[in-house]
Amino acid sequence: MLRASRGAVLACLLAASGLANAELFGNSDWKESEAPPAPAFSQDKLIDIEMPRYSSLKFGIDPNTIKVSGDGVVRYVIVATNKEGGGFNAFYEGVHCATDEYKTYARASSPGAWEAAPNPEWKRIGDRASRHTQAVALQGLCRGHAPRASVSEMVRFLKAPIREVE
């Protein structure tokens, strides 16, 4: 009888674990929760993102804007500047590690002047317009098809990216 109970408990734990993973990581019934408004950001605290040498833009992410919601989406502000100096463009984005997709919610070209993106849609990470998003996801936000365990872990990996075999 005791063996049957242990087996039942193990089966329940595995089922619960599977349901939790399905909810965050690849459930076909997944639904995004409402995105909060674009947060304030600081250009003084940006963590540089490693980009290919041929890129004419420099990208940095404000670590204070990184948030993970219950639906598994990692949202953040990333700022693009010309390597020569000058103006900037900021993007409020979300990454869904489970599906390798991203969404741009808003853009700003001056502090606090967010402009909502018209009809934001999920797009595949890796298209030409999302090289910076792919870099951010690989360097710190995602571990395989799941968000990293915590925002502090994400920040640690963004500051010192390690190329992992996943």
CATH class of the largest domain: Mainly Beta
Radius of gyration equals: 18 Å
The percent of residues in helical segments reads 25-40%
- By CATH, the architecture of the largest domain is named Beta Barrel
Number of helical segments with 4 or more residues: 3
Question: What is the global morphology?
Answer: globular
**CATH domain fold name of the largest domain:** Lipocalin
Largest sheet: 8 strands, antiparallel
User: What is the rounded distance between the termini?
Assistant: 41 Å
Q: What structural class results from the helix and strand content?
A: alpha+beta
Features:
Lipocalin, signal, 166 residues, eight-stranded antiparallel beta sheet, 2 domains, two-stranded antiparallel ribbon, single chain, globular, 3 helices, alpha+beta, 27% strand
Fold and architecture overview:
The chain has 166 residues and is an alpha+beta fold. The protein folds into two domains: 1-29; 31-159, Lipocalin (Beta Barrel). 26% of the residues lie in helices and 27% in strands. It has three helices and ten strands. The strands form two sheets. Strands 1, 2, 3, 4, 5, 6, 7 and 8 form an eight-stranded antiparallel sheet that branches. Strands 9-10 form a two-stranded antiparallel sheet.
Topology, element by element:
Blueprint (H helix, E strand, L loop, with lengths): L1 H23 L22 E3 L7 E5 L5 E2 L4 E10 L5 E9 L4 E8 L6 E2 L6 E2 L6 H11 E2 L2 E2 L3 H9 L7
Antiparallel strand pairs: 1-2, 2-4, 3-4, 4-5, 5-6, 6-7, 6-8, 9-10
Helix pairs in contact: 2-3
